[in-house]
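Our preliminary data section would be incomplete without showing what the modeling component actually yields. Below, a chain of 150 amino acids is followed by its predicted structure, encoded as tokens that our downstream tools consume directly.
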Amino acid sequence: MSLGALKHITDICLLVEDIERTVAFYTEKLDLTLRRRAEGFADFEMPGVILAAWEIGHISQHTGVPDHPARAGHKACVAIELPSPAELDRLYTELSTRDVPFQGPPDDFMWNARCAYFYDPDGNVWELYAWLDGGPGDYHDPQKNDIKGE
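Predicted structure:
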């Protein structure tokens, strides 16, 4: 079976520096439920996907995956769609009171979504978003929007 024939992604695993710090952030600040905990590893219950965290030193020791990639910088963004812009604003306020480090307040973007971005303790980027009236539309279709590379 080819990878493209698979039904969906089942797990997202973030590679982290300190598993204890990560577990505390996701359970105390984001209210996720810890599903499983092992040496250097934890995963959390989320609808439709398992969010896992694996300590980079642990995965490196056991699999040979390098503990410091050749290039630094953001490599991925975990996104969660919320049902409305009002719910995004409410959640932003709630998480801000828990000292979740947001890039800035929610804003409306040209791709017709209201978004807010925050970082976990290892610098992984998270996006909270809600579609504005009209949903995603054809923004990503350059034929319909005369958009090149944006």
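The longest strand covers residues 49-55. The helical segments are 19-29, 56-63, 85-97, 142-145. Preliminary results of this kind motivate Aim 1 of the renewal.
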